[in-house]
Structure formats: structure tokens, C-alpha cells
UniProtKB/TrEMBL annotation:
Residues 217-229 have a biased composition (Basic and acidic residues). This is DUF4219 domain-containing protein. The lineage of its organism: Eukaryota, Metazoa, Ecdysozoa, Arthropoda, Chelicerata. Residues 210-229 are annotated as: Disordered.
């Protein structure tokens, strides 16, 4: 596995974090970074202690070498992978009350834009929920689903009212999203059908023309009688 990823910069922490987790897992040092694996006890052999120390060094170097030079001063005085990981996480996601409140406000005020796809809107909400989770705040399931349908256009009114009547075990973010995507596709198809119908209705029908002046008509009986008298 390639242990190099795009270096950590000021604007790619979420993707960098996921890539780094994969690398640390592959190198079998992620538990060390999380502090879940303790060093060998006093009764361990020197070989076991040395092996653990090498893995600790590997954890730190894996992180340090994948950080851009502009941000390396954050962990320049650190030699432990666990400490480096915590410093970087705190720098990008300070678990402060102000940040949590700001993210909650952003979540509940997030509105779908005009002509924006439901899938894209849902992805934005997911990102905010992930940021809140990093701060130790989980949005309740019913509020996740509620926010997804809260600011939809009027054309979704019927399906929204139907969703409100769903049982609690069905009123989840993913199930609501699937229903809205299906409704979005149905509305788009109806719109295309209407445009196609309007186009055909506006096109004059081409009918054959006939020159009725040249058609032989029966002569007027009165006129025929006079000519014969």
C-alpha cells in the first residue's frame, strides 16, 4: 500500500484524516495513535519492547511526513504519534462550546438552494453532522430527517406530508433521502413530459390542402332547367 497521501494543508483535513487512518491501519499502528494499545509491561522481553518502540516511531513518522511543511511546526517538538494526532485534531476541530453551537446553528439554518439536487443538499447536511460528531455532539435521528425535508420547494409538499405520517422507525435520514430522490426523479420526468406535450401542441398540424374551386360540383337544378327550356 502506498503510504503517501496528499499532505495536510489548511483546507483538506477531513479527507487527509480518512487517508491517514487507512495508512495507520495498514501499518498496524492506529491503536497506538488512539492510545488503545499500551506499551509492554516490565516483564516483557527487550525484543518486545524494541518492537513496540519501532511501531511507535513508525506511527509518528507516518503522520509527520504527510503534513505540509507549513503545518509541521505544530508537531515539530513532538515525537509521539498519539500526541501529534491529538494536536492536529485539536487545531482543526477545537472541541469548544462556541464551535459546537456554531455548527448546530449552521445545521438547522441550512437551506436547499434553487435547482439544487436533493443528493447534494443531503451531502452538505452529512458533512455538518460529521463535524458535530468530531466535537462530540450527535444530532438526534429525528432532527436529521426533519432538517432534510424542512426547507424543500412547494412541489415536494405532497410527499413531505406523507413522510410526516411515517412511523418513527422509518423516519430516518437515509430512508427519507431515498424517498425524496425518487420523488425528485418523478417530478423531473413529469416536467419533461409536460414540456414535450407543450412542444407538440404548439406545432401546427400539417394537413393536406384541397382546391375546392376545382372540384366538380353538381350543377344547380334550377339553372339546368332554365337552360333546357
Amino acid at each position: 500500500m502506498n503510504d503517501k497521501v496528499a499532505p495536510l494543508t489548511s483546507d483538506n483535513y477531513p479527507s487527509w484524516k480518512q487517508d491517514m487512518i487507512a495508512i495507520l491501519l495498514d501499518r498496524n499502528v492506529y491503536d497506538i495513535v488512539l492510545g488503545k494499545e499500551n506499551p509492554p509491561g516490565d516483564d516483557a522481553t527487550e525484543k518486545e519492547k524494541m518492537r513496540f518502540k519501532k511501531r511507535c516511531n513508525k506511527a509518528f513518522s507516518s503522520i509527520y511526513l504527510n503534513v505540509s511543511k507549513d503545518l509541521r511546526p505544530l508537531i515539530a517538538d513532538i515525537t509521539e504519534g498519539k500526541k501529534a494526532w491529538e494536536v492536529i485534531q485539536k487545531y482543526f476541530h477545537p472541541e469548544s462550546r462556541a464551535r459546537t453551537i456554531g455548527l448546530l446553528d449552521r445545521f438547522f439554518s441550512c437551506r436547499i438552494e434553487i435547482n439544487e439536487k436533493i443528493g447534494l443538499y443531503a451531502a452538505i447536511l452529512r458533512k455538518i453532522m460529521a463535524d458535530l460528531l468530531d466535537c462530540g455532539e450527535k444530532v438526534p435521528l429525528k432532527y436529521q430527517a426533519f432538517q432534510l425535508i424542512r426547507f424543500l420547494p412547494d412541489c415536494f409538499g405532497a410527499i413531505v406530508q406523507a413522510i410526516y405520517r411515517w412511523p418513527d422507525d422509518r423516519f430516518t435520514f437515509d430512508q427519507v433521502l431515498n424517498e425524496l430522490i425518487a420523488e425528485e426523479a418523478r417530478l423531473e420526468q413529469c416536467s419533461r413530459d409536460h414540456e414535450q406535450f407543450s412542444l407538440h401542441s404548439a406545432t401546427p398540424l400539417r394537413t393536406g390542402t384541397r382546391n375546392f374551386s376545382k372540384i366538380n360540383r353538381p350543377q344547380d337544378k334550377t339553372k339546368e332547367y332554365k337552360n333546357r327550356v
